[in-house]
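Usage example:
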Amino acid sequence: MSIRHGLLALLERGPRYGSQLRTEFESRTGSAWPLNVGQVYTTLSRLERDGMVVQDGEDEAGHPLYAITDSGRVELRSWFENPVDRTSPARDELAIKLAMAVGAPGVDIRDVIQSQRRHTVRAMQDYTRLKAQALTTVEKNGARERDDIAWLLVLEQLIFQTEAEARWLDHCEYRLIRLSSTAPAAGPEPASPGTVTGAAGTGTQAGAGAEEAARHRP
Amino acid sequence: MSTQQQPALSLRNLTRVHGSGATEVHALRGIDLDVHPGELVAVMGPSGSGKSTLLTIAGGLDTPTSGQVYVEGTDITALNIKGLAALRRRSIGYVFQDYNLIPALTAAENVALPRELDGISARKARTEALAALAEMDLGHLADRFPDEMSGGQQQRVAIARALVGDRRLVLADEPTGALDSETGESVLALLRSRCDAGAAGVMVTHEPRFAAWADRVVFLRDGAVVDQTVRSDADSLLTGRAAQR
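Running the assembly step on the lines above writes:
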């Protein structure tokens, strides 16, 4: 997540001091990704080192104010113009867990899927309730409250993300059921753990539903 | 949700077997479920898990092989056909995927119909129907025929019809199945608000996004409840700003 660009975007609206930036960042994103003041100041000093912000006096209370520079504006513009990179996906713990659960002895992968599904759907229930509240607020205050709208967008992103995860879990379950029902009863042994075969990809998939694979070692 | 209150719907050890012998299929295997007034429950599960069977039995459209179905305290499996028909009309509203409004009747007439069948005067039924539509912000649709309404509008009228009069139990079978996600959301928002106002709702859906509007999500697999989720206090999830609202 780019705190750097988030701060530049806030500074484009005028000079601000550190804890003010933190408050505004959080009210934009509904505290979905809380920041601490330390992160804000570390980021500000890096931005200052890179010439994207400068210290610009103090407010009445003596807080040092930061202002965006022209090269900061160029950086911000380019952030908005360029897509967020998806070609090197972040490590996903759930995907790793399911990959490891395939054929793992003593692990029922359907139980792993179901316990995740319960958790994910429950998170969706919570986000959905927050969203219903946010919608009411936006309808009441009108479209002029930028923070309300930003918060609604963030919540909806969380809903879409959890929805994608829930659908993927359903898909994994169907996939495993289909593979285990079509797996040949007495066909060639799937690769047992530790044995590398030529058809590595199909080997792991065929072992998906069948924990037996591990027991029926040749 | 209060558990002292009598549930609007209770299923007790419900089983349903289709066919017999070698072709026997156990659609439901001992389901227990309580739904209280003010509660919206979503039932999810893969196709063939028994979720539609559960709903049709809860609504008295099918009979269980064994077990009981209590609607506001009355065991509907013990009723004769006439008694069941009367109870269904009085207590249970059903919402289908394809709306099932009567094409020759306007929205208001569709909503008034179950009340007229209850034996109240046409004029009173119409008054009630108009009030129900107005309460759900659908008053402007009163004189439209189904083919003059969008899918989402028809489904919201169907929910009004399901809850007109004293009925407080709405059973919805994939109510958003034929709708795009934006419109589906407006249907769920209406269902949610009716439950917040005291109705009890059970909805079968395979869409997690719509199930997420429920207070509780029940997962079926092979005819049995394998798991369920209860919505937490959302304010504890995202603290700070959320809690201030």
